[in-house]
C-alpha cells in the first residue's frame, strides 16, 4: 500500500508539472499569436521601436548634393530618436541585395533606399523582414506591401518658378536645362522648368538634354559648354553630383546658372543666382519619425507646396529686381491657389 501511495503521489506531481508547462506554453503561444496579429494589423504601426540603428543605402558615392540632403534628414531623425545613423554605398548592382539584406539582418529600422534600382530590391526583401520598415526615397515605385513606404518630394513647382525667373532674366532669349537621366523624378524638374519658361516669356527657347549619369561632373560640364556655345545664357541643372560640373562650366563661361535641390549659391552667388529647392531633408526626417511614433503608413506620400516645402531661397529672392520679385510673388500665389497647374509630365515624350 505504501508503495502504491508513493507511486500515485509521483504521478500526481508529474501530471501537475506537465499541465503547468502546458499552460505556460499555451500562454506564450497566445502572446506570440497576438503579437503576430498586431504586427499584421499595423505593419506600419510599430508599437515599440527598439531598433538602435537606421541606415540609408545609396548607389553612387557620397558627396552628391541630393543624397546629402536626404541623409541630413536621416541623421536628424536618428539623433532625436537615440539611434545610430549609417550610410552604405552599394556601388555595384551585384551588391544591392547583399547590402540591403545585411542592414536588415543587423537590425536597422527603418532602412532608407534611394532611387528605382534599390526600390526593386526593397520590394523583394521586405516580406522576409516584416518588422523592418523600408522607406523608398525619390522614386515613384510603390507596392501594397505593409512595411514599405515611398516618399517623393515634387520638384516641378520650384522648377516652374525657376523657369519664370530664367525667362525674365535671359538676354539672348535662349536658356537650357540639363538633367542627369531620363527618369520620371528627373522629368518632373524638366516639365516644370520648361512650362515656367513658356509662362514667363513664350518667345524664349529652352533646350533640354540628359547627361546619362548622376555622378559625372566632367560630362555635365562638357554638355553645358555645348549649350552655352549655342547661345544659352542661363543653364539650369537637375543632375545631382554631375550638376556640379554644369556649375563649374558656367563659372568658366561667365554664364548664369540655376541650382537644384538645395541652395547652391554658396558655390558662387554671382553665377548660381537662383536655386530650385527640394525639401528632401524634411521628407526623410518625417518618414523616419513616423516609425518611432507608431504612425508609419505604407504606400506613397507626396511632399510639395501643400506640405509646406520651400520652393526658393530668400537670399536669391532679395537679389532680384523689384518687378521680378512681384512676378515671383504672383506666380507663387497662383500655384498655391491652383490657378496655375504646374505639369509633372513632359508635353511630348
Describe the protein.
The chain has helices spanning 2-42, 65-81, 93-105, 116-125, 156-169, 184-200, 217-229, 243-253, 280-292, 314-317, 322-337; strands at 53-58, 84-89, 111-114, 134-137, 148-153, 174-179, 205-210, 234-238, 256-261, 272-277, 299-303. It is α/β, with parallel strands linked by helices. Residues 1-48 have low confidence and may be disordered. β3, α4 (116-125) and β4 form a beta-alpha-beta unit. α7 (217-229) packs across α8. The strands form two sheets. A six-stranded parallel sheet has the order 2-1-3-4-5-11, sandwiched between helices. The protein has a five-stranded parallel sheet with strand order 7-6-8-9-10, sandwiched between helices. It is 48% helix and 17% strand.
Low-confidence stretches: 1-48
* Run of helices and strands: HEHEHEHEEHEHEHEHEEHEHH
> CATH H-level name of the largest domain... which superfamily?
Response regulator
Quick one: CATH class of the largest domain?
Alpha Beta
The overall average pLDDT, rounded, is: 88
Judging by the overall fold, what is the CATH architecture of the largest domain?
3-Layer(aba) Sandwich
**What's the number of domains?**
2
What proportion strand? Answer: 15-25%
How many helical stretches?
11
Terminal Cα span: 97 Å
CATH topology of the largest domain: Rossmann fold
SSE class: alpha/beta
What percent of residues adopt helix (DSSP H or I)?
40-55%
Strand line-up across the major sheet: 2-1-3-4-5-11
* Count of beta strands: 11
> Radius of gyration over alpha carbons?
27 Å
Main beta-sheet strand count, sense and barrel state:
6 strands, parallel
Amino acid at each position: 500500500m505504501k508503495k502504491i501511495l508513493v507511486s500515485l503521489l509521483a504521478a500526481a506531481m508529474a501530471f501537475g508539472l506537465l499541465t503547468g508547462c502546458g499552460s505556460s506554453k499555451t500562454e506564450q503561444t497566445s502572446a506570440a499569436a497576438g503579437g503576430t496579429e498586431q504586427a499584421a494589423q499595423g505593419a506600419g504601426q510599430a508599437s515599440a521601436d527598439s531598433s538602435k540603428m537606421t541606415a540609408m543605402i545609396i548607389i553612387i558615392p557620397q558627396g552628391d548634393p541630393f543624397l546629402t540632403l536626404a541623409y541630413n534628414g536621416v541623421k536628424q531623425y536618428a539623433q532625436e530618436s537615440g539611434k545610430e545613423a549609417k550610410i552604405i554605398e552599394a556601388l555595384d548592382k551585384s551588391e544591392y541585395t547583399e547590402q540591403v539584406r545585411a542592414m536588415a539582418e543587423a537590425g536597422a529600422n527603418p532602412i532608407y533606399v534611394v532611387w528605382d534600382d534599390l526600390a526593386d530590391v526593397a520590394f523583394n526583401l521586405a516580406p522576409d523582414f516584416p518588422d523592418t520598415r523600408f522607406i523608398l526615397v525619390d522614386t515613384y515605385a510603390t507596392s501594397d506591401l505593409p512595411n514599405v513606404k515611398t516618399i517623393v518630394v515634387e520638384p516641378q513647382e520650384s522648377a516652374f518658378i525657376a523657369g519664370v525667373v530664367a525667362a525674365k532674366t535671359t538676354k539672348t532669349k535662349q536658356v537650357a536645362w540639363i538633367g542627369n537621366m531620363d527618369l520620371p523624378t528627373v522629368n518632373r524638374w524638366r516639365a516644370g522648368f520648361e512650362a515656367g519658361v513658356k509662362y514667363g516669356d513664350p518667345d524664349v527657347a529652352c533646350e533640354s538634354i540628359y547627361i546619362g549619369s548622376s555622378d559625372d561632373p566632367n560630362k555635365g560640364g562638357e554638355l553645358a559648354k555645348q549649350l552655352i556655345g549655342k547661345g544659352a545664357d542661363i543653364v539650369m541643372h537637375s543632375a545631382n553630383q554631375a550638376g556640379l560640373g554644369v556649375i563649374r562650366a558656367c563659372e568658366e563661361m561667365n554664364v548664369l546658372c540655376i541650382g537644384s535641390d538645395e541652395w547652391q549659391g554658396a558655390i558662387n552667388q554671382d553665377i548660381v543666382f537662383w536655386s530650385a529647392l527640394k525639401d528632401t531633408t524634411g521628407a526623410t526626417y518625417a518618414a523616419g519619425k513616423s516609425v518611432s511614433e507608431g504612425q508609419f503608413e505604407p504606400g506613397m506620400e507626396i511632399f510639395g507646396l501643400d506640405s509646406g516645402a520651400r520652393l526658393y531661397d530668400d537670399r536669391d529672392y532679395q537679389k532680384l529686381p523689384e518687378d521680378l520679385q512681384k512676378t515671383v510673388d504672383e506666380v507663387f500665389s497662383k500655384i498655391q491657389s491652383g490657378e496655375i497647374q504646374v505639369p509633372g509630365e513632359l508635353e511630348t515624350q
